[in-house]
Amino acid sequence: IQQVFKQLFYMINAIALNNLLLRKDICSWSTGMQLRFNISQLEEWLRGKNLQQSGAAQTLEPLIQAAQLLQLKKKTSEDAEAICSLCTSLTTQQIVKILNLYTPVNEFEERVTVAFIRNIQKQLQERNDPPQLLLDFKHMFPVLFPFNPSAITMDSIHLPASLNLDFLSKV
């Protein structure tokens, strides 16, 4: 059950983040607030179902950071340093794309300046990020089956002749 929810939450993360990276109309402060609220509801649900050890919440980390990026101030070099230290699960390319797509919803917000984005790129240039922008929503985590040793020893097993397993021999 834990593995199923980890996979499901990864797919939610990948699809939501990919949509954020592709749609200018949803890259705003208010979308960041809505995302963060919805993610906290998912995290609360996991706690309520006692699934916090499943790793499902950790798969949402890139989306959490993207939501926080949308909510942070984006003016000074201190803001750039805060973004760089906060967004460790996002690639440089993803951070820059979100900043480029950021669209102010009201007159109190301002567009992100080109100088600010260049400052972010300069601070993140030593990162060795993968070149891909979008997340692979078809990624599958390996299924792990717990090992439960049997009390029956292999010496005591009798293989019926009707199985035609003559090629097997006891050692």
TrEMBL record:
PROSITE patterns reported in the protein's UniProt record: DILUTE (PS51126)
GO molecular function: GTPase binding
All residue ranges annotated as the Dilute domain in the record: 1-126
Residue ranges of the TM segments: none
InterPro entries referenced in this protein's UniProt entry, alphabetically: Dilute_dom (IPR002710), Vascular_dev_regulator (IPR052072)
Record protein name field: MYO5B protein
